[in-house]
Structure formats: structure tokens, C-alpha cells
Amino acid sequence: MTKAEKLYDAAMRLPIVALDLFFLGREVSGIRGIVATHPYFGGDWPFLMTLAARASLVIFLAVAVVLHLSRYRPISKYAALEPKITALLGTLFPYLLLLMPRAPSDVLWDSLSTLLILFGGLLCILAVMDLGRSLSVMPEARKLVVHGLYQRIRHPLYLASEIATVGFYLQFRSWQTAPILVVHFYFQIRRMGWEEGILSKAFPEYAEYKRRTWRLLPGLY
Questions:
Q1: pTM, full prediction
Q2: DSSP per residue over 48-68, as a string?
Q3: What are the structural domains of the chain?
Q4: What is the pLDDT of residues 10-39, one digit of tens each?
Q5: How far apart are CA 121 and CA 193, in angstroms?
């Protein structure tokens, strides 16, 4: 890899790291705020679940920052802009949800949101642990990971993030935020296709791996 390529790869890490750090600080500040207004919450399980969901997002963002800074350099990537733009838009759209005003509190929707965020956040962390330094935002080939959650499905991190994203949406659930969710899903499906294409090109064994695995849901898709 040339010096220019190394500088380009380093520069590509900075925007997503900065974005993660911004929302990390925002979530930490939010947690401090809700704890300050609710200093005693012993036995208040709905509040504890909400707090745990917010904390899991903080942990995931912190892990993402570390892994994006230490990830392997790519051994293969697309020269065209379309795969990169698709990946960027698929990554950014969930953050738009976090900037929208929340819907009025509702015990049912808030509880379901908390459970989905906790479950999706846990799966995200497990998938990221499997990926390690192979984590990437753009469709790039760093190292073929076929163990852990990747043994049966090719994109467990996407599955996990979509579960969490649906959980985020339930806290907002408005006609303004619904299109954000739909467009995000569209770009994520396109993004998976681009990733599979570059991995097939970089790793001959990917064809066999693809044949024996499912894209997202075993037995369905």
C-alpha cells in the first residue's frame, strides 16, 4: 500500500469515528440527565431497562470507535463511487432518527423499544467481537470472517443493527421518521450486495461460504 493509500484509509476512518464520538458524548450526557431527574430507581424496572438500553448503546459506540481506529487496512475495495455512497447513506440514516423529537411516552412501545435495543445492541457487540479489526463501513475486503455468528449468516452485524434501529424508531414512531427507516433498509440491502461482491473478488473461498450460509435470516433470506 502506497503512502497516499495509507493516508486515504486513515482519513476515511475519521468521519465515522467523529460521528460515533459525538453520539457517544450525547448519550452519556443524556444518561446523566435522566439519572439526575430520577436519582432513586430501586425496583423501577421500566426505568432500569431504559437506562440499560442507553448504556448498551454507549458501550457499542465506544467499542466501534476503538475498532475503527485499529482495523486492518483493506486488501481490496471498489474504485467506483456508488458502493461507497450506498454504504455511507446506509450508515448515516439511523443517526437521523436520534436527532428527531421523541414520541410521547407509552409503556408498551417504550418497553418493546428497550427490549429490541438491548437485544440488537448485544448482537452488535458479539458480531463486532467476531469481526475484530476486520470491521468496515465501506464495502472493503480486509479478512474473511466465518466463525462465531458468521458461521450461519453472512451479515449478522447488519441483522443486529436493524433490530436496534427498529427499537430506536419505536421511540419516535412518526410519519416524519418512517421514511428514514424505509430508506435506511433499502440502502442496507444494497450495501450487503456490494460487500458480497468485493469479498467474492478478494477471497476465492467466499463462493463456498456463500453457498452454505444465509444472508440474514436462516431458512428465510
A1: 0.73
A2: HHHHHHHHHHHHHHHHHHHHH
A3: 3-211 (1.20.120.1630)
A4: 666 677 788 888 888 988 998 888 888 877
A5: 23
